[in-house]
Specification:
Helices cover about 85% and strands about 0% of the residues. By secondary structure, the protein is mainly alpha-helical. The two termini are about 20 Å apart.
Length: about 260
């Protein structure tokens, strides 16, 4: 039952790219204030829960087997290893296809003149989103499986940051083909990489799962989430021209996460 719950939450987070797809179809102008606050809030949730909760639980799990200092060293290495993993993925994807590069409805609409290139851009962006969502899916799944009480705020944070990715995939495909169905399909399919990442991670890792594997994986998850927050969410909010609102969102996300951990842990 816990596995099914974790998988369903992971699927929900990944398929929120469909929300971005809908925004791309119907919005004529990006709501920069709402998006800045939302992205900042998402970053606040992920940074706080990663550093205050997930990192500590990873250390506790590793220290129980390895001892306090060796366990802390292993936790630190795994934490920065998670950051390195997502950074390498970013490096391997060209900037104009990278879903971590800020997009807006207006900016995508301006590309309408280059219809022939838009379809290729949209397809490659969908592939890029899928590659990024794979480790995010594993991170969400492991978090939900290990600590169900952490699952919902993490899912909300991942879902919020997937919305601009849905815009990035759907808009160029829509303007190049004129088909909302095709645009939504590619956007939806790119989000499927998150539950696929959960399935693959589960099948590969569960036979070997113990305190050490859980600790390393949990620390890596924390690193991935912190990197995404600083590399993607906050810079994206700043690019939308709403720097202060993004910081207010960040603080609000941390506060909500702090209260929720206090009440439900």
């Amino acid at each position: 039952m816990d596995i099914l719950f974790a998988f369903l939450l992971t699927a929900l987070a990944g398929l929120s790219t469909g929300i971005g797809s809908a925004i791309g179809f119907f919005a004529k102008k990006t709501n920069t204030k709402f998006l800045a606050v939302s992205l900042g809030f998402s970053a606040g949730v992920m940074v706080y829960v990663s550093l205050v909760e997930i990192f500590q639980k990873a250390h506790h799990s590793l220290a129980a087997v390895m001892g306090n200092k060796p366990g802390m060293l292993a936790t630190i290495i795994a934490f920065f290893g998670g950051m390195l993993l997502i950074a390498l993925i970013d490096k391997l994807i060209p900037e104009d296809k990278n879903p971590h590069e800020v997009k807006s409805v207006e900016r995508m609409d301006d590309q309408n003149a280059g219809r022939k290139k838009l379809l290729r851009t949209g397809v490659f962006t969908a592939l890029a989103v899928g590659i990024h969502n794979f480790p995010e899916g594993l991170a969400t799944f492991v978090s939900a499986l290990q600590e169900p009480s952490l699952a919902i705020p993490i899912v909300v944070a991942i879902a919020i940051h997937n919305i601009p990715e849905g815009i990035a995939v759907s808009v160029p495909i829509y303007y190049s083909t004129g088909s909302r169905k095709k645009a939504f399909f590619y956007s939806f399919a790119s989000g499927l990489a998150e539950p696929v990442g959960a399935i693959v991670g589960y099948l590969i890792l569960m036979p070997f799962m113990n305190d050490v594997v859980f600790g390393v994986l949990f620390a890596a998850v924390a690193g991935i989430m912190v990197f995404i927050s600083f590399d993607e969410l906050l810079p994206s909010a700043r690019e939308y021209g709403e720097h202060h609102l993004s910081i207010y969102g960040l603080v609000a996300g941390m506060a909500v996460m702090a209260v929720s951990l206090m009440l439900f842990m």
